[in-house]
Amino acid sequence: MCRWLAYSGTPLLLDTVLYKPQHSLIDQSLHSRMGVETTNGDGFGVGWYTEDGRETPTPAIMCDVGPAWNNRNLHEIADHVRSGLFFAHIRASTGTAVQQSNCHPFRHGRWMWMHNGAIAGFHEMRRELCLLVDPVLFPDIGGTTDSEVMFYLALTYGLDDDPPAAVARMVGVVERVGREHGVEFPMQMTVAVTDGVRVWAFRYSSSGASRSLFYSSRVDSLRRLHPDKAFLRDVSEETRLVVSEPLGDLPGAWHEVPESTYGIVQPGADELLPFVPQPA
Q1: Glutamine amidotransferase type-2 domain spans which residues (predicted)?
Q2: Is residue 187 a contact partner of residue 168, using CB atoms and an 8 Å limit?
């Protein structure tokens, strides 16, 4: 499995989140507390948006097949790139090749996607699932992972128009195909997807026992709890993190995303809603 984080809020240097926290994502690449594996060393990726004046933002992606903890290029970029919306992912392969095209986050146009979990029985059902991808989109699939196929199925089922409905249809079709292949619990996922403005985060599994996922408390609440923390004075009340596991032990800072739930991080009030798969 994998570990990931999604950040949205006041623009800051990537290393503020990737390296500096007590239990940062880089620390988790070696010492995960809640993942299936303690070590997540089968590649990594970061993707970020910048305010460059374009009407439709397109994220930059940097990834590599080596472990995140000793990558000099990642450290160099993290200390110089500033962004108000970025994804970061450390990979532990569930069977597909360790190669750059299999590293998250994945990108299509303005969209960015990353996943922790697996489609059980993916090897047996991969061809059938791939044939359900829109033929116009199919040539853009670059790797061999279940995660990327999930992304392109969500694009096929209307990600541009209604992300929660598209992801629900994607899960619905994966579960249908999986059960046709004799897989009782086909889907295990925490997923983050963004269009460069909003972030949607999903926690779901067919078995009802999903991988861990947390979101940060409102900044104004944290300021009241911890008035001595200088970094809380430097970020806006819109700032939010969604993470596979907490980046530290600050009391009151983290809340678990409930089972079968998705959240929307957006300008204004965020939302937390039930997630139910739908037929495609």
Answers
A1: 2-280
A2: no
What is the per-residue pLDDT across 180-195, written as a single tens digit (0 to 9) for each?
999 999 999 999 999 9
- The SS3 assignment for 89 reads strand
Nearest C-alpha neighbor of 108 from the set 59, 170, 145: 59
Q: Tokens for 233, please give them.
A: 């004075």
Banded model confidence at residue 99, pLDDT cuts 50, 70, 90: very high
User: What is the CATH T-level fold of the domain 3-274, as seen in this structure?
Assistant: Glutamine Phosphoribosylpyrophosphate, subunit 1, domain 1 (3.60.20)
Asked whether residue 56 carries a pLDDT value surpassing 80, the answer given is: no
User: Tokens in use for 113?
Assistant: 């996607």
The answer to whether 163 and 156 are in contact (CB under 8 A) is no
Residue 31 tokens, joined: 């010492």
Return all residues near 31 (Cβ < 8 A) that are at least 6 apart.
23, 38
**Contact in structure between 192 and 216 (CB atoms under 8 Å):** no
For residue 196, give the nearest of 267, 93, 148 by alpha carbon: 267
Quote the DSSP letter at residue 23.
Answer: T
pTM exceeds 0.90 for this model = yes
Locate the domains of the chain by residue range: 3-274
Q: What is the secondary structure of 152-192 as a DSSP string?
A: HHHHHTTTTT-HHHHHHHHHHHHHHHHHHTT-SS-EEEEEE
For residue 238, the Cα-to-chain-centroid distance in whole angstroms is: 19
Q: What is the DSSP letter of 61?
A: E
Tell me if the bond preceding 105 is cis, omega within 30° of 0: yes
- Tokens representing residue 121 in the block: 């029985």
**280 within 8 A of 157, measured Cβ to Cβ:** yes
Mean pLDDT of the chain: 95
| CA distance linking residue 260 with residue 264, whole number of Å | 14
Measured CA to CA, the distance from residue 153 to residue 171 in angstroms comes to 9
